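Q: what sequence does this backbone want?
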């Protein structure tokens, strides 16, 4: 009788663990997307779970119940991380991103915002398993008989495990195929199996790359060529700043009066400019801007390629006699900035450690204090100089002290993320206005070109109730095109230009656009971007938050399906927001994939090093 109870106890434990873990995975599918082969993926998932839990319960930790709880707990944590990551980034995390775990303390406020208390259900199996153990374990203390039967069952399930993992598929199938055919468990097994293994890049990609002999060098006939020649260059990368804020009135209040004023005189404003970030978020925006190369979805570029050779914006300016300086009111080691900035060509990096920390808001130094102290430091620099400024206060989740809240929110937005966001960006705009006045009083304004752009979006188009609130604010559905749309403002004092350029572009186009304005004819490298003031058509490949192959051009926005099947994708016209026939997107889809692959090939093989060796 005791032997029977022992067998029943173990069998019930295995069944409970398998059932609960499978339910966790089904819960994940509700937030992400369901595998296209759901039945096959479910059968394979159940088999692999049965295999794992049978081995654990019968062999590895049969005598120690607490150790048998570890794996169900780990599965719960993994699914929770998957759900929260997907909610924010619209892709599942890869095992390679474990290297970013040291960033968690810095983003704990954002994690708290993404957390939903119903996620506690992911750990419901733990008390159920404990309760079952307490009720059954006393009767189940006898040594189990007929071990050979259990051994045979475990071997059968282990065989099922091997068959479902399909080891050969690790190289022959991509992540989308693994997820769609095998499900979440196999997806993560593949991810962990590939840890430490260098990603294979098709060498034939290199045959189509033209890294050298640039054929699109600006000249005196180019529009705005040399408009800002020999001027100081001041770049302001604004944290989480979206384009819908420009010229926007909210509850009869102007959200960005200083930027609006800047646009109206001596400025070129690009209103169809889009973010280009990778796993590294803000740092990847910096990278694309400084180098006109696509960032990576494998790991933050600043960490993965910190030892690469670059022909970056600060290096080009440095060759022309500019002093090059970066300023940021946060820790110098975050995103590995202190290591890669010298390699990018920056002479000096002023971080939180060097500033007077007289006012801390959110992540670090307040933008008000940051701009005041940076203006003073710029005044002491040898001219011409390059000053690259990265703001911080408007970082998710946009918490602001009451004394800096100037916007009277609508009742329905008070307490929502969008309400906090509007308060923070209005504050940043005021700080920028003060900074412009400091440049004038320090006699730097007239001799400088001042460029401002957003690094990435602030409000996610996939999160409720933010999506609903944004759709109501805009008057139409808030989708990826609005979410990714950031402003680019190029302000050249004394130029008498007041132009809005609606060509589609993004971070990748920043460097060639700036070189033309500064009258710099760079012929050593073909950039992935183009000079937006002289380009005929706009185009940009997208990769963060979307599957590779997504793109935006002057007419349409294409979102490659998350399951990797082209026919499951969606696209719409930017002007009418009506659907686009997917057959019209095939050519630019392939162009986008090619651009990302070529960029990965250049970075992985450090091809720019050959340029300097020449």
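A:
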């Amino acid at each position: 009788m005791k032997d029977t109870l022992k067998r029943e106890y173990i069998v019930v434990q295995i069944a409970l663990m398998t059932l609960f873990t499978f339910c966790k995975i089904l819960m994940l599918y509700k937030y992400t997307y369901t595998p296209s082969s759901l039945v096959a993926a479910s059968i394979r998932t159940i088999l692999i779970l049965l295999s794992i839990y049978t081995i654990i319960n019968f062999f590895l930790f049969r005598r120690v119940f607490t150790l048998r709880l570890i794996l169900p707990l780990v599965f719960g944590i993994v699914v929770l991380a998957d759900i929260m990551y997907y909610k924010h980034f619209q892709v599942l995390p890869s095992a390679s991103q474990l290297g970013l775990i040291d960033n968690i303390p810095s983003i704990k406020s954002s994690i708290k915002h993404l957390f939903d208390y119903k996620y506690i259900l992911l750990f419901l199996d733990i008390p159920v398993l404990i309760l079952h153990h307490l009720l059954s374990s006393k009767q189940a203390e006898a040594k189990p008989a007929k071990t050979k039967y259990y051994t045979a069952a475990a071997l059968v399930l282990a065989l099922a495990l091997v068959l479902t993992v399909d080891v050969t598929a690790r190289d022959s199938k991509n992540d989308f195929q693994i997820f769609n055919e095998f499900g979440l468990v196999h997806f993560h097994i593949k991810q962990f199996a590939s840890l430490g293994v260098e990603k294979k890049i098709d060498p034939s990609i290199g045959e189509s790359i033209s890294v050298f002999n640039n054929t699109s060098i600006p000249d005196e006939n180019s529009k705005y060529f040399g408009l800002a020649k020999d001027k100081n260059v001041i770049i302001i990368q604004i944290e989480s700043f979206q384009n819908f804020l420009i010229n926007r009135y909210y509850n009869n209040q102007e959200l960005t009066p200083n930027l609006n004023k800047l646009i109206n005189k001596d400025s070129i404003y690009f209103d169809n400019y889009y973010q280009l970030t990778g796993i590294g978020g803000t740092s990847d925006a910096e990278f694309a801007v400084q180098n006109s190369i696509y960032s990576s979805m494998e790991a933050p570029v600043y960490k993965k390629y910190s030892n690469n050779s670059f022909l970056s914006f600060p290096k080009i300016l440095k060759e022309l006699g500019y002093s090059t300086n970066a300023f940021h009111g946060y820790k110098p080691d975050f995103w590995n900035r202190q290591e890669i900035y010298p390699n990018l060509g920056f002479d000096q990096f002023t971080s939180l450690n060097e500033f007077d920390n007289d006012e801390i808001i959110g992540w670090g130094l307040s933008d008000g204090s940051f701009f005041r102290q940076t203006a003073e430091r710029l005044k002491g620099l040898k001219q011409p100089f390059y000053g690259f400024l990265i703001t911080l206060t408007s970082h998710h989740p946009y918490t602001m002290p009451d004394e800096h809240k100037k916007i009277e929110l609508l009742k329905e937005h008070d307490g929502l993320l969008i309400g906090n966001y509007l308060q923070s960006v209005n504050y940043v705009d005021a700080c920028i206005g003060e900074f412009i006045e400091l440049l004038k009083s320090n006699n730097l304004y007239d001799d400088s070109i001042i460029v401002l752009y957003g690094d990435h979006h602030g409000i996610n188009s996939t999160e409720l109730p933010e999506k609903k609130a944004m759709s109501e604010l805009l008057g139409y559905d808030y989708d990826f095109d609005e979410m990714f749309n950031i402003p680019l403002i190029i302000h050249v004092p004394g130029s008498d230009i007041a132009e809005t350029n609606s060509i589609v572009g993004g971070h990748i186009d920043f460097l060639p656009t700036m070189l033309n304005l500064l009258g710099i004819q760079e012929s050593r490298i073909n950039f992935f971007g183009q000079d937006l003031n002289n380009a005929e058509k706009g185009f940009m490949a997208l990769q963060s938050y979307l599957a590779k192959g997504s793109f935006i051009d002057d007419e349409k926005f294409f979102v490659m399906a998350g399951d990797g099947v082209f026919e499951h994708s969606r696209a719409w016209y930017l002007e009418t927001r009506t659907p686009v026939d997917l057959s019209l997107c095939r050519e630019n889809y392939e162009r986008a994939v090619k651009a990302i692959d070529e960029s990965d090939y250049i970075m992985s093989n450090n091809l720019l090093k050959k340029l300097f060796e020449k």
